[in-house]
Structures are given as structure tokens and as C-alpha cells.
Amino acid sequence: MQTSVSDDQKEPLPQYPVQFVPSSDDPAIQNSKYEVLRPSWTSQFLRSFKTVDYEKTDENSENVFNDGSYKYRQKKRNPCVVLFRMVSIVMLIVLFSNFNVFGLSKADLKSDITAQESSKDRCGHFTNLTRTWSFHDLKTFTIRNQIRPAKHHEHGHEHFQNSNVHILAADKDQTDDIVVRFTFNVTNPSLLKRLVLDATDSTLTIRYPDPDTDRNGPYGEQCIESQTTIYVRPELKLDELTVESWIFGITIPEPVSLTATTANFTLLAGSMHADPMFEATNTYIHVAAGSVKGTFPLHNELSIQAAAGTVAADIVPRETKLGEVARSAKLTIATEAGGVHVEYQPPAGMHSFPERDYQVNISSRLGHISGSVLHGSLTSLQTAVGNIRANILPFAADRYPSDMATVSHAGRQMINLLTPLNEPEMPLARLDSRHTSNAGEVDVTYPKTWEGVVEAVSAVGRVAVGGPDVHIIKQDRKFIGGYVEAERGEGDGSTLCRAESGSVRFTVAS
């Protein structure tokens, strides 16, 4: 049954933006280009635990330090209140560290795509519908799988099982650019009348239920199985590919010989698994409720946004194509509630990474951030509630100035900056970096080639700065906090390590 869907009948796609909030009021970050995640409830909560603060002053004394923008002096607090709040903060951090809802390990985040138990034992006999569409001479292609359960009523309910959208490599003898095979199996044949199928030369829309009959479906418990399989001709090239799925996951379980300028994926309630993702110059993945996992090539831009779900991605950078203008290789990942684990991998057959300007921006409101990333001109790792544990590999040492920021509001940081991949013997002397936490330990290690000035400060916690050829310029050690300023070499690098509540340690590797 094939009917068309007019524009005025189409339901608007639900919106689920990943929102960002204004920049931090931390003076060390306020003048930078970074925006820091700070949900209002988190700010209020952390503010209630604040024990020792620094206030601005114009004085010049041993108890005053300068972070480069303002002068500060330490406020005094009641020791009993300080002790009580310190214990509370430690308990909070320990509790969250052991609460592994958003686990980070690759083994925890990766899962095989396994077949679900057959629903026929529970649902009984199915009535089957199968349709096939062929598309050729394509420049763009859009498929919308707008299947969802009918609106609930008191006498019935629909169960969707064994339902997915698959993208597969076609056989070598397929001449059409794309062939779509759709199956729809139902326990009640009358449900087939509520299915709407609409195809044009370059689009396919699959809708269930028909809005006109949504509330007039059969009563009782109904079972539905649906599979949408997209077969792609070898060596196909598209300007744009768009895949939309409302309640089904999208899987790419095998290599697909497809090249696209732009690839768009939208999922409202389902996960995306790509092993691996096909080649696309710009890839945009939006998931409302579900995870994103797999191996993804990075050409010019890869953007993954998930409102509720984890992201576990192996990133494989690609070289700039011959004749193309060199552009930055940008990775952007943002989650509202979910951990992020990222691993940069060299392309197959290469022992190193292509020469690109790598830019990384990873943020999460509620979840840990971990993995290994490449640092070019810009790296930003930010979380409101969660730990940050990252190995950061600079692509070059002295080719260009660069900025780096790791920011957490409730959670510890363990940052390991590695020796630059190229120019490993040259001084890493043009890095401007900030590692800050409101409640949590900050532990930072830099390579022996780093040169510059470092400021380490904690309102409540120990402060330690050390390493070969690191010279202490100034230090102010208090009973519950401290400040250390040090330098190494003659470089122009500038580093700030700061914690409101928690210890701070900065070490230059030997």
C-alpha cells in the first residue's frame, strides 16, 4: 500500500537540543575562549560546600597572590565548619567515583550486536509485509523511518521487537545506487492499514501509525517486528545522506564503500553502532535517548550529540585530499547524561597521524570523560559532574600557539600531556593551558620538553609542584590551602592548575 504524506500532515520532529550555559565566572577562565558547563543546580550545590575562598584585593603582601588577572587574599573560616565541609566533600567525591552508572572502560561501553530472542513464542502468528524500492542516479538520499507505537489507550498496547535500521554493502552485481528492503510483521493484519509508505526519486518515508487512524487501532496486546535494510552500491558517492529513525537503532555492522560530503543521522529513541562508519567529510549524529559506539573517520568535522546515553568512539583521522584547501579536523562530542570515551587511532597502514590542525571539544553535564586525544590548536574537556582522565598527545611542539582547558565542577582530573608527536626534541613552549576543578583533585603531568610558567592553587587541599629544572618563584602554604608559582625554561607557555576543594599536583616528567 503506497500513499503520499503531505507536508501539513507530517508531525514535527521532537526537539532535544544539547544546551550549553554561560561561561564560568572563574577569573582564570573568564577571559578565555572557552565556555564552561555550569548547571544552576550544580553551582548552588557546590556553593553550599565552599569552605575557603579568595577575595580580590589591592594589597601587596606575602599573603597575597596574583593569578595574572587579579590579586587575591585568603578569607578566614571557622575551623570546625571547614573540617565538617571537607569531610562532606570527600564523601561526595568517593561516592561518585564508585558510582559507575556511566562507566568509562572500553569493555563496559562496547557491546556486540546480538539477535534478540524470537518474539513469535510470545506473540504467536505474524502477518508479513515486504516492500522493496530501488534508487538510481542519486546525488542526495534521505530515508525517514518514522515508526513509533500508537498512542496508548486503556484497552491496548503495541510491542516492537527485533526492529532496526541497517546499512549494508550491496552485492557487486547491484546496479542501482541504493536498494531499500522493508519488512513489517504484525500479529493483527488490520495494523497494516495504518502503515504509510511514500517514495520519491531520492527520498523514502516510512510512517506508522497513520495520524488519521492513530486512535482507531485494534484493542489488545499487539506485537510488531520491523526491519529496514539499506543496500549501498560499491563506490557510491553522494553529496548528502540523511537517515532518521524515531524508535529503532541504526547499525553499520560491516565496511560500506560509500563516500558522502555530508552525513546526517537523527535518532530519537535508539542507539547507533558503526563498525566502521563509512567515509564522510562532515558527519553529524544526534541522539535523544541512546548510545553511540563504533569507529568513525575524521575528515573535516565529526559532531556527536547525545541527550541521554554514552559515547564510545574510536576516531581515525584522514588526510586532506589532494587539491583541497587544508582545514581543521574538528571533533565535537556533547552529552547531557552519559560518559564519553574517545581513542584516536592512526589510519590503517600508517604508524602516525596525518598532518592536520586537530581541534577537540568534549563536554558532559553528568558523566565521566576519558581516553586519548590529539591536541592541535585547541582542546577542551569539560564536565559538570564527573571525572576527567585523559592522555593528550600534542601533534606538534612549536609550529603554532595552542590552547587547552580541562574543567570539572564535581570530580577529579588526571591529565597526562605526552611528548609531542612531531618535533619531540623541541621545547613545548607556546601552550596556554588551564586545569580547574571546583570539588575534586587536579593531578597534571607534563612532558620534559615543556617550558613556561605554572601557577598551582587550592583553597582547600595540598599543593605540589615539581620535576627536573622546575624552579619555585613564589609559594604561600596554608593549613588548608596553598599557592605555588614556578617556571621552567624560557618558553612562553602558561599553565594554571586550580582546585576550590581538593589537592593540586603539577609534575614535569623526568
List its salient traits:
mainly beta; 16-stranded mixed beta sheet; 15-stranded mixed beta sheet; 49% strand; 510 residues; 8% helix; disordered N terminus
Overall pLDDT score: 80
> How much strand content do the residues show?
over 45%
Instruction: Give the strand line-up of the largest sheet.
Output: 8-9-5-11-13-15-17-19-21-23-25-27-33-29-32-31
CA-atom Rg in angstroms: 27 Å
Helix content: under 10%
Structural class: mainly beta
Low-confidence stretches: 1-57, 61-76, 92-120
Individual helix count: 5
Shape: elongated
Question: What is the number of beta strands?
Answer: 34
End-to-end separation in angstroms reads 72 Å
The biggest beta sheet, please? Answer: 16 strands, mixed
Layout: helices, strands, pairs:
Elements: H1 27-30, H2 40-49, E1 54-56, E2 64-66, E3 71-74, H3 79-98, H4 106-109, H5 120-123, E4 127-135, E5 140-147, E6 156-169, E7 178-186, E8 196-199, E9 203-208, E10 220-232, E11 236-245, E12 249-252, E13 258-269, E14 272-274, E15 279-289, E16 292-298, E17 301-308, E18 311-317, E19 329-337, E20 340-344, E21 358-366, E22 369-375, E23 378-385, E24 388-394, E25 402-410, E26 413-417, E27 431-439, E28 442-446, E29 452-460, E30 463-466, E31 471-477, E32 482-488, E33 493-501, E34 504-508
Characterise this structure.
It is elongated, with a radius of gyration of 27 Å. The relative contact order is 0.12. It has helices at residues 27-30, 40-49, 79-98, 106-109, 120-123, and strands at 54-56, 64-66, 71-74, 127-135, 140-147, 156-169, 178-186, 196-199, 203-208, 220-232, 236-245, 249-252, 258-269, 272-274, 279-289, 292-298, 301-308, 311-317, 329-337, 340-344, 358-366, 369-375, 378-385, 388-394, 402-410, 413-417, 431-439, 442-446, 452-460, 463-466, 471-477, 482-488, 493-501, 504-508. The strands form 3 sheets. The chain has a 16-stranded mixed sheet. It is mainly β. Residues 1-57, 61-76 and 92-120 have low confidence and may be disordered. The longest helix has 20 residues, at 79-98. Strand 31 and strand 32 form a beta hairpin. The protein contains 5 helices and 34 strands.
